[in-house]
Each structure stands twice: as structure tokens, then as C-alpha cells.
Amino acid sequence: MLVHDLLRLKIGVSEIATLPPAATIVEAAKILSDLKIGLLVIKDGGESFDGVLSERDIVRLIATHGEAALQMPVSSVMTKTVITCKPGDHTCDVMAMMTSGGFRHMPVARDDKLVGLVSSTDIFRYLSEHANSDEQALMWSKISWV
To answer: What is the mean pLDDT of residues 91-112?
Structure first.
């Protein structure tokens, strides 16, 4: 299965949650909580993006800086060098990149423009609902549990 197939299955999830780099951590946490998601794309307008911010990033920041972290800008903690995939990439390869990189979400980009977002949950959901046993075996073989 290819990433663009997975994106088509994400019915009702067409918008990607974004925030500008100057937004605060408390604003980011509120959006993550309200939308029940684990990752925000940080962008300052346009189709390209500046980075990503995960709930893990926020937890680590609070553990280090305490309550003061809540008023810090998301740009101070976001991941700036983001690994992306393309719509034509195979989900097995995407999952292998996620597990080796230790992250659960991956932006999908075409010509440096954000076109979607996939998560390990999206892939697992597809496997459990649509994949045959051969596809499942191939996917599990690509995952390195560390």
C-alpha cells in the first residue's frame, strides 16, 4: 500500500493542525488536547512548513523548564529538521523510517509542499482492517522494535 492510498482512507481528516512559530506551548497543548492528536505542523503561512511539535516535545520541555515552558514559543522546541515522505512511498518503508527514527508521525510532502500527515496509528488501523496476511507480514518485518 502506498501513502496516497492511506491518505484517501483517512476520511474526515483532511485538515492538518498548524500553528505559527510564535504561538506558545500552552496554545499548542490546548490544540493537541482538543483535537486528540499527537503532532502539530508549525508554519508561518504558505504551503511549506518550518517544523513539527509533538506531545513528547512538550512533556520533555516541561520536565526541563517547569511551568515557565508553557509561555515559551513553539519555535524554541519544535523539530526543525523534519523527515518527510512522498505520496508514492510504500507504507512499509514509511513505517521502517518511523521506527528507526523513534517517531510516530510523518508529514507527507510533494515538491516541498505539505499534502498530508500519516501516523503509525493510521498504518496499524489499515493493517487491522484491510491488509491480508502477506501484507501484514511484510509490514511487521520492516518494523525494528528498539
So the answer is: 89
Structural domain for 62, as ranges: 3-142
Number of domains in the chain: 1
Q: What SS3 string covers the chain?
A: CEHHHHHHHCCCCCCCCEECCCCEHHHHHHHHHHHCCCEEEECCCCCCCCEEEEHHHHHHHHHHHHHHHHHCEHHHCCECCCCCECCCCEHHHHHHHHHHHCCCEEEEEECCEEEEEEEHHHHHHHHHHCCCHHHHHHHHHHCCCC
Q: What predicted TM-score, i.e. pTM, was given to this entire model?
A: 0.82
CATH code at position 73: 3.10.580.10
Digit-coded pLDDT (tens) for 32-55: 999 999 999 999 877 778 999 999
